[in-house]
Design a protein that fits this description.
The strands form 4 sheets. Strands 3-2-1-4-5-6-18-19 form an 8-stranded mixed β-sheet. The protein has a 7-stranded mixed β-sheet with strand order 11-10-9-12-13-15-14, sandwiched between helices. It has a two-stranded antiparallel sheet with strand order 7-8. The protein has 2 domains: 179 residues, Rossmann fold (3-Layer(aba) Sandwich); 179 residues, Rossmann fold. The protein is of the alpha/beta class. Helices cover 33% and strands 20% of the residues. It is globular.
Amino acid sequence: MQLGILKEIDSEKRVAFLPEHINNLTQLGFDKISIESGAGSGVNVSDQQYQEAGATISDRSSILTGSDLVVGIHLPELASLGQDIVLVTQMNPLSNIETIKELKSKGSTVFSMDMVPRTTKAQAMDVLSSMATSAGYKAILSAAMQLPKFFPMFMTAAGTIAPAKVLILGAGVAGLQAISTARRLGAVVEAFDVRAAAKEEVMSLGAKFVEVEGAKDDTSAGGYAVEQTEAYKAKQAALIQEHAKKSDVIICTAQIPGRRAPLLVTEDTVKNMKPGAVVVDLAASTGGNCAFTEDDKTIVVHGVTIIGDSNLASTIPFDSSKMYGKNLINFFKELVNEEGVNFDFENEIIEHTCITYKGEIKSPRIKNIINQ
């Protein structure tokens, strides 16, 4: 069985597997592992290092046409995907329905790792959590680089320097990692989340939880946020603005799968923030939590620096690749056996992660959206 590893576009520094993963892949039953030349350049890994680990260096065309299974970080160009390909990648399918329809018409078989169900068994395959860990950590460092103040409190001969005040919007994996990192740097941290379960986690990390009463029940949402009522949103906006005006840094992480990111930091809020304050918006690719966010851009509005970046994981490419590769290896333990790719759609993990299979849509969540 042959595995092919693709090189990503130049702006993406990560790679699906590092040389240290090759032995694990061999043990899973891959007798040939081909990697596109230069795939490891973004993580400072040479073709020779992959060869020494047991992989073969190849070109993109050969990998796409000659592999039993192909892996990547992002969905490659659709024109390159034929009927016989089996691809494991990330494609944000809930927001790319037209792409799914095209893959279906081509007869391609595509698994999307960002659709791994949030079950106990699947935790070790959860690339969203792994990449959110990187993003939350780097969001705080990015803010610290832009903020014209120290994060920790200092007692100096010139007087006392007050610690920075950080507000985290969304206490999922990225938000919790941002809290931990900001606390390590000595900031005073507050966090907001609509999910009731987040309060205990926030407080356990030493941050204050900003609570808005009246949130819609989210117990059946699988750990994701749910759309809230207009009355709740109004109370939420007022309370967030009250805390934002006192904050030096706001980290925005709130997203709802398949929908526009909720607007949490309004134009009026930005106008009332401290000059020199920083907003880092990790939800930039889905519209952003801040009214002024522009994806992949850093702008200054009303004296506030707003960083729109939905791919901060790529700025820590080595460790992000290390985690992504381990997630894939754990997924492959479900997907492959000694006979090859095992399309066992009775397996919840395989069923939910498989977007298209030989002209069919398999993921129940995608089916529901398309059939609406």
